[in-house]
Amino acid sequence: MNMIKKLTRRKNAFFRSIKLHLINRRYRHKAAREAFQPHRIKNVLLLRLDDKIGDMVITTGCAKALAEKGYRVSVLTGPLCKQILSGSEYLENIHLHRPRMALDELKSVQFDAVIDFDDVVSYERFKLHADLGVPCVIGFNKDSYKLFDQSIPFFDENKHVTERYKAVLNLFGIADAHYHYHVPFNQQEHDKLRRLLGDKTDDTRYVAINPFTGSEDKDFSREQVVELIDALHSLPFPVTVIMIGQSAKIASLALENVIVVENSTINSAVEIVRCSDLVITPDTSIVHISRALDKPLIAVYNKRKLKDTGLPGYKIWAPNYAKAQQIICDTDFISAMPVNDLVKAVKQRLSDLQ
């Protein structure tokens, strides 16, 4: 059975590569690229199809900057990103992406440009662009594909991921000196959290801990989390620990003396970060939410390279703001890292806040 599955996957991959070639061949006689003329663009669609929160949070800086210059900006993305963007007044629409979705609604908007922030080269992605038929398709590192009307070269392990988005703004002639992320306020989740926290003394410090990520090698272990919580409660001032993460996964840790938000969503996470004096996380989505809200942060990274590009994630996806401290561990798994340095850093940051 496994052999049959492998053969089926290989067959499907082969036919997708053929279909990708045919799409590219369709554009072989397309005229040479012209200089970009932003004055022709009024209505822009941003693609964030992977539904990754960290990517989407960073994209908000580009979206808002375009909107502030008068462009009508919409986003095509997945359900999690649509949830976190809800209430973003600078966006015209947030369209939900689904595999093999009908495109009638999107085509009726008559976008002037679509911006694809990914390096993805696949039949499915190219077919989406071809079927949308937007007059100007903007992408990254797509110089050899005539489907793309503008290709921005960007492949530098020494540049932070925000430089990618600044390059888009530069293409539109927009100054990028201050690139800020934006996450909207969610009243319902905020009120829910405030009820859980109750009334505390003025000297209470709120510390958010996010133990889980999308990759096992980046997760904290239960032992690390327990040691961190014990260290926080040993400080000479009151500390309230709030856990960030899916309720069931947090419950599996069987922690004591912490606040857990039931039925937690990504908007719950945003409001926890908003209410916290310090955030501790190995997850880049929470890192970038913390930056959006300019919160004191201790972020833990390993040295794993990005799967798609081979670039060092701890450089490309670093917090990159003044209130953040980055700890880079030498172990392949963050869960194998001695927690001493993290505890020391946490105690120092909280002492500085007193």
Automatic annotation (TrEMBL):
A Pfam family cross-referenced in the UniProt record is Glyco_transf_9
Question: Which InterPro entries would you find in this protein's record?
Answer: Glyco_trans_9, LPS_LOS_Heptosyltrfase
What UniProt keywords apply to this chain's record, in alphabetical order?
Glycosyltransferase, Transferase
**UniProt GO cellular component terms:** cytosol
Q: Provide the GO biological process annotations.
A: lipopolysaccharide core region biosynthetic process
A GO MF annotation of the entry reads: ADP-heptose-lipopolysaccharide heptosyltransferase activity
Mind telling me what this protein is named? ADP-heptose:LPS heptosyltransferase
Q: Which organism was this protein described from?
A: Kosakonia oryzendophytica
